[in-house]
Design brief:
Layout lengths: L2 E10 L4 E11 L2 E6 L7 E4 L4 E4 L1 E6 L12 H11 L1 E6 L10 H11 L5 E6 L13 H7 L3 E2 L9 H14 L2 E4 L12 E2 L2 H6 L3 E2 L2 H17 L4 E3 L5 H12 L4 E5 L1 H5 L4 H5 L12 H13 L4 E2 L28 H10 L6 H16 L14 E11 L18 E11 L2 E4 L2
Helix pairs in contact: 2-3, 4-6, 6-7, 7-10
């Protein structure tokens, strides 16, 4: 692929780069020249001032294959990621069978080969995600797994979790947890609070998340400061716990989803089951704490928790409905609209949360916009106002509350692995 990106706004926080009116020449998938008014035989793409950033990476995606291909396949999920502006993702292990052995890892790698989007694989912490017997971590590491989790549920036993940390330390694996104290959330369908009481829906207390965050931080420190990543934080208590742990030198990182800094639990009144998440949407003071955590560096990463479901799994009563929404194709518009536009984060800070920090957490090679580097780029217009429609969805599933939503900021394209994807 030979391409000249004309009139780009280059932003790379890792290099301190923020330059407008720049051209980027890409030959054979490699950045060969960066400058102004470049002349090239390559195909010219005038970006009219759009932002070019190091390729965005989503470290929390559910691809559903193997086992639930009616919701999403590896192919459709990777295409949705490219359309949403991501050049890399990490797929979570709650498939059927779960990613508890190297044979499943190999299957997923084969299905993802040759795609524009890089795929990193998260294996399970315990066999079959049952929380009882540890998964074969050495074999999973040899197969290429970079992170472990029993995502979809927390490991209930503190002793088992201690053993997870001890073995993960041996292999320098990143441990990530779905933080939920299950004895407090059985049958719950939304955040416990005024709205759940008003609607008569079983409530999910915020402290159920905080308890597991606190437990895991203490265990990770006790075992020897093991690398720990708290998934999709949603409460002010969790943000406080991570901030305090970082303050005393704990090797802890965390992520938050776009829907958790955009919507409160009141969205259930409007969107019904399309606003049923795990963890649930919380209160306004939780959103404020999340934004503060993004600003002060407590929260390292933004991840989608892309969770495809067939419509029949959502078009039912709220207690019976499946948790989660798709998120790959709305993540960047939501971030630009609700974080960058109001000034909560600068453009550089936002890109750091979506591109630089996820790769750091996973200890992946850095992606940079400089000559002789492979072109791994996310391109978007942060000022374009548009309406998200169902026809924009490339995921196999359509479960999202954002159809018809107006955003400021639109993905233009992605470039990686000598391929380009241009959005509508």
């Amino acid at each position: 692929m030979d391409l000249l990106l004309r009139n780009a706004h280059l932003v790379d926080p890792s290099l301190g780069l923020d330059a407008t009116g720049m051209d980027v020449e890409i030959l054979g998938g490699v950045i060969t020249r960066i400058g102004k008014s470049l002349q090239s035989s390559a195909e010219v793409c005038d970006l009219n001032g759009a932002v070019v950033a190091p390729g965005f990476f989503d470290m929390h995606v559910h691809l559903r294959e193997p086992g639930q291909e009616y919701k999403e396949t590896i192919a459709t999920g990777l295409t949705a990621a490219a359309a949403g502006g991501f050049t890399g993702i990490c797929c979570m292990p709650n498939t059927e069978p779960s990613i508890s052995d190297p044979f499943v890892v190999s299957y997923i790698k084969e299905r993802a080969a040759g795609h524009l989007v890089d795929l990193v694989i998260c294996g399970t912490m315990t066999k079959g995600r049952k929380g009882e017997e540890l998964a074969p971590m050495a074999a999973l590491v040899d197969a290429g797994v970079k992170m472990i989790s029993d995502d979809g549920g927390a490991v209930r036993s503190a002793e088992v979790m201690r053993r997870v940390f001890e073995y993960a330390k041996m292999f320098d694996l990143l441990v990530t947890q779905h933080c939920e104290e299950h004895s407090m959330t059985a049958g719950a369908a939304m955040n416990e609070g005024h709205t759940s009481t008003k609607l008569g829906i079983p409530g999910w207390p915020a402290v159920a998340e905080d308890i597991i965050v606190a437990r895991d931080i203490l265990l990770a420190e006790y075992v020897g400061n093991v690398r720990y990543h708290a998934a999709h934080l949603s409460t002010k208590g969790s943000v406080r716990l991570v901030r305090e742990a970082k303050g005393r030198g704990a090797t802890v990182s965390c992520e938050v989803t776009p829907h958790h800094f955009m919507l409160t639990d009141q969205a259930v009144e409007k969107h019904g089951t399309m606003a049923k998440m795990n963890p649930p949407l919380r209160a306004e003071d939780d959103i404020n704490a999340i934004i503060e955590g993004l600003q002060d560096g407590t929260i390292d990463c933004i991840a989608t928790d892309h969770a495809p479901h067939a419509m029949h799994e959502k078009e039912t009563d709220i207690v019976s409905a499946s948790f989660g929404i798709i998120g790959l194709e709305t993540a960047i518009p939501i971030g630009l609209t609700y974080l960058v536009k109001p000034g909560h984060l600068s453009l550089s800070q936002y890109i750091e949360k979506c591109s630089i920090n996820p790769r750091k957490a996973l200890k992946l090679p850095a992606v940079q916009i400089k000559e002789k580097e492979r072109a791994n780029l996310t391109i978007f217009d942060p000022h374009k106002t548009w309406r998200f429609e169902e026809s924009d969805i490339r995921s196999k599933s359509k479960n999202t509350p954002f159809v018809g939503e107006e955003f400021t900021g639109k993905v233009i394209g992605t470039i990686n692995n000598d391929h380009a994807y241009w959005s509508n």
